[in-house]
Write a structure and sequence with these properties.
single chain, mainly beta, 5 helices, about 45% strand, rod-shaped
Amino acid sequence: MNLKLLFIVFSIIFFNFCSTYGQTVSLYNQFNGRFDFTFIGNTMNVQENGANDPCVILTSSSANFTLNTGDVVESAYLYWAGSGTGDFNVNLNGNPIVAERNFDLILASSGMPFFSAFANVTSIVQSTGTADYTLSNLDVSSFLNVNDYCNNGTNFAGWAIVIVYKNDALPLNQLNVYDGLQNVPSVLSINLNSLNVIDNADAKIGFVAWEGDRNIAVNETLTINGNPISNPPLNPVNNAFNGTNSITGSSTLYNMDLDIYDIENNIAIGDTSAIIQLTSGQDFVMINTVVTKLNSQLADATISIDAINQECNSRTIVVDFTVYNNFSTNELPSGVPIAVYINGQFIQYTETILPIPIDGSWSSQVTITIPDSIPDGFTLQFVVDDDGTGVGIVTELLENNNTDEAIITFLNSPTYNDLQPLVSCNEGLTSGTFNFLNYDELVLANTNDIFIGYYETALDAENNVNQILNTTNYFSNFTPREIFIRIENENCFIITSFLLTVENCPPIVYNYISANGDGINDAFFIEGLRDIFVNFELEIYNRWGRKVWTGNNNTDDWNGFSNKGYRFDDNNSPKGTFYYVLHLNDINYPEPLNGYLYFTK
């Protein structure tokens, strides 16, 4: 019984007439740009397995890779496969290689296992370049007798490297690498998605296949989208996998195929997927990898919201954004529309003003005024290649990656409680001393907000400089005076204020005079009178009710000197008891203050 293990860059593995189990082939990597691909590799079989096979599997073999002028290796993926449960530690040009991923398949009827392994060897191929490559230390000999692979004609081992290279002389292409491990009974179908066919010129598909037999061609076909493909004479339409290498022209790649097919006439412009189908009347197939190359000169616009600049208490925002043309195969033209949505509602339109090259970007800024109908906590959405109706003007590699969004909350200043004026006694000419320590608690309307400080000017509060430090005994030489307060939250600050005012408090009378010139009680002193009750009138009467002195804010304090009525002894009053009448002439004190005082010398 013969088995074809097909390593189709998709590595394809075939088995005989019994169900098998593996992993679904799917897209592994995509390259967009001036890329192409090739294969190198070799079998470990000394001859085609089956009849007269000595059942000898080598542990090493070599293949040549030639890097042409202008070619630059982008990626190199090593696949190796064989009979058994797997050997996942090998060497490439003496470099130890450990499998990064591995795939397994079991033939259900016999329980016979087969394996394939993967490693990224890009750095090795990039540094080595044109050279012979030798894979060694791949040993499946211990597995061959366990399940009688040799008598079943399923003993094999081999390796291949899928090499993706770029060259500035190439057209812009989209290159897809798929891998996995699938199985079929008599028919195997694989859906290759993520294609974007713009031009089918020079379209190619490549396969790496194991276990292909030159002498078995029983109902064997390979089709793409229902169309049989072939490379005669190496790969006839009825025997696609037959131990050949279409890159080198070899027909002695025993039980292994490295084949690349032209598919210009088998895929149509506009296709986004393709169906690969393999049929065989004798062998089963397992698939690891397939490579497609399609001419695809397309831009791919994406957008990012980079920064949202907001001002406190404003519904106007300034948004920094960037439009990218990454992973594309063509320039993004100027004039590509950009729609701005808020909560799904179209708000305004802008557009790119410069062409964006492949892998390039363009940054700009837009000012947006949020309508009053939009509530706080809205979703801002930028969509590139959208004219505001969901319609674009550019055909892109991907049409579902054109959006970026952010949730926006308005920046609101803290709220505060209005503060009543703080009143103190007039200390003269509207000056006063104040204690406003507890106002920092009274002003906060939200306990999450932060009181910052008190300031004498609004400018100091704005700049948060020159804070008032003495808040318990603050002297102001004039009133009314505005004191400013700064309050902050995590985004904004606000300035509020309160007034310092004074009132004329009742004066305090000291009613003892000793006019002896010792500097103590030498005159009649009334505290809280002068420069406060500026229109006061003071009258002094002797014990007989005769007025002996009058004064006001512009005269000196009374020291016993008489300036009214009968006077003697150089106008000095005799010692004794006198009476005062104090007219404050203040609306809050309509009645005069009066009392007695004692005068002595």
